[in-house]
Amino acid sequence: MTAGRRSLAISRALLWPALIVAILLTQIPLVATLYYSFQEWNLLRPGQRGFVGFDNYAKVLSNGSFLSSLGNTVLVTGSAVVGATLLGLLFAVLLDRKFVGQSVARTLMITPFLVMPAAAALIWKWSILDFTYGMANWGLSLVGLPPVAWNTELPAATVIMVLIWQYTPFAMLILLAGLQSQPREVLEAAGVDGAGPFRTFTWITLPHLRQYVEITVLLATILLLQVFDPVAIMTNGTGGSKTLSYLLYERAFIGLEVGEAAAYGVMTVIVTIIVAMVALRTLFKVFSEEGLMNR
Amino acid sequence: MTLRTRMRRATVPAVLAAGALVVAGCSGAGGGGGTSDGGDGPVELTLATVNNPQMKDMEELKGEFEEAHPDITVNFVQMEENDLRDAVTKDIATGGGQYDIVTIGSYEVPIWAQNEWLTDLTEPLTSDAEYDVDDLFAPVKDVVSVDDSLYAVPFYGESSMLMYNKEILDEAGITLSDHPTWDEVADAAREVNSDDVTGICLRGKPGWGELFAPLTTVVQTFGGTWFDADWNAHVDDPEFNEAVQFYVDLVKDAGPADPVSTGFTECLNTMTQGKAAMWVDATVAAGMLEDPEASEVAGKMGYAHAPVKETEESGWLWSWNLAVPETTQNKDAAIEFVKWATSKEYHQLVGEELGWTRVPPGARQSTYEIPEYVEAAESFAPITQDIMLSVNPTQPGLYEQSWTGIQYVTIPEFQDLGNQVSQDLSDVFAGRSELGPVLERGQQLAQEAGDAQ
């Protein structure tokens, strides 16, 4: 055995303890969930607990809530991610120039992301979207539009709005980092060659930002898939705002159906893995060979 | 790079994302609190309770109990209602034994008693003549009893009633009797409704304990029911449909503008600011409406029995109760504390130490004979007492029931059922769907729940 291979073996051995801990911590809950998903177990009916095979999965697939929740999740997460990324790009471009009060503006722009999700949802519910006293309806009245009963009429849009507000700073930060890593000489060269600001942006800046946008979309999607607080606090899962995580919460904590909730959880994992694999392999350059070579 | 490693690279974030989702779904309430040691010697009791003002008063006064019982200390764990329900259910269902005393709602008591999770308190309470168990309001005692055994003691209780702003109704020349009908109330609401004033505040927030608390009482007084005595569901019956249609129409014509956001707290706000003419909700709200520091309408309110149609009464019945889980190691000490906190002396103590309006209402009849209390709560205490004595939890509607309870059905599946149907009803409030199909689906869900009984 050569010295190189031996040191490789030692490095690997040193890695094992951490890896084992990581595997245990992440996989034990999954295994427990799998186990519960084959049980009939309503917390309030302790006498009727038992193994039921795939019954819970049959229930999940036969009643419509799983598919409709999946659709809601895609819609809510998708719109919020796209909205936050576009707005984040806009603000990043605006902040990527010198002006008086730049650092103050940057700090203020980041604040929504620092507010706890539950607190943010409460602020939106009471001071912005309240029918009588909310700022949103006050704003509408200024331009002569009738007030909107946000949570009743547009529950899904309400949740999406809050999420966009909260995740725009997140997207902005990553994209701003991307903008600032642009080599200045390339931009100057473009200017010398006669490209205007618009062409410089579309032909040089945007391709440069591609990987940053991908990272933003990926991380925001992961974070937003778990969205729960605004749904629970503002809309209670009504009218297209019932996302998968809220559905899981409902099955487990309102229905108290541990087995069924676990089956929903497992189905969610399966669907997410399939979707994520397809998305990562087809859409994202960051994880492809080419993307790695470019680093 | 080979295809395999590429696959693996792609799978890692995917699994992470999926795992995060599962964790998000599973996290929720966390319990808390100390443990208690069994055996002799000093005893430490852990009491899990909902964070209502009356419970905070109890915590403030627990020193008196500890002074009288030097070997017992009581630790309070306060939680929001839903968190409490999750934490306590999980603790008891899995035999955790973390809590010695729990406050539970009247909906849970019969279900938990049938699971043999609660200590039978009949003997310790009835054997003590001084405690005077017959002084507890009979309807409230009924809802916490199973086969004539008491499994919990009411700490405070409430029914529902019509509360109205006399100024607004007088201006419109409307007078209401003490026993109004829903038709009268609806007409009055539509008449006084304007851009500035909501005709009648009614809950529309989804949830079995939010929307379906008032709505079930409406269904019952219209002659409908969730289940008959043989557990056949009756959700798509014409009476159920008529009642819900009536409620939805009333909310659309003269109710809160954003019904899906509106629950007890939201209505209380609107009402205390004088922005609503009428409100049908919990009797405990009266105490808050009459508080001059928090309410602009104190002294301007009138109270009446909950509106009816086919029945004599349609108030609901709810109580927060103290119960002793079977899993506790300190049963005797726990029962001792439960007795103290629901005794006549405790009511005196609250009145003298904290003020008479803060005495827990709706638990003991003798409270309504304390002169200081009657004086402090004169505008609403007599009618509250009257309503608490006249509601009938064994048969609130026209149907015979095989459960005891008014605005809920004491089966484990009801929370889920009420929650799902009320979510679908938000679509009806918003005009996104018709009532018919919603109730048809409700009927299906209800029949599934009925079949499980």
What is the tally of helical segments of chain A?
14
Percent of residues in beta strands of chain B: 5-15%
Radius of gyration of chain A: 24 Å
Number of domains of chain B: 2
Give the oligomer, counting copies of the same chain as homo and different chains as hetero: heterodimer
- Give the terminus-to-terminus CA distance of chain A: 33 Å
Largest sheet of chain B: 5 strands, mixed
Helix content of chain B: 40-55%
Q: Which ranges of chain B are low-confidence, i.e. pLDDT below 50, for 5 or more consecutive residues?
A: 1-39
CATH topology of chain A: MetI-like fold
How many strand segments of chain A? 2
Signal peptide (chain B): 1-29
Keywords (chain B): Signal
Pfam family, one (chain B): SBP_bac_1
Protein name (chain B): Sugar ABC transporter substrate-binding protein
Structure in words:
The complex is a heterodimer of chains A (295) and B (453). Chain A is mainly alpha-helical and 295 residues long. Chain A has one domain (65-294): MetI-like fold (Orthogonal Bundle). Chain A contains 14 helices and two strands; from the N terminus they run αββααααααααααααα. Chain A has helices at 3-37, 55-62, 65-95, 102-114, 117-128, 135-142, 150-153, 155-180, 184-192, 197-225, 229-235, 244-254, 258-282, 289-294, and strands spanning 39-40, 50-51. In chain A, strands 1-2 form a two-stranded antiparallel sheet. The longest helix of chain A is centred in the first third of the chain and has 35 residues, at 3-37. The two termini of chain A are 33 Å apart. By secondary structure, chain B is an alpha/beta fold. Chain B is built from 18 helices and eleven strands. A five-stranded mixed beta sheet of chain B has the order 2-1-3-11-6. Chain B has a four-stranded mixed beta sheet with strand order 8-9-7-10, sandwiched between helices. Chain B is globular, with a radius of gyration of 24 Å. Chains A and B meet through α1, α7, α10, α12 and α13 of A and α1, α3 and α17 of B.
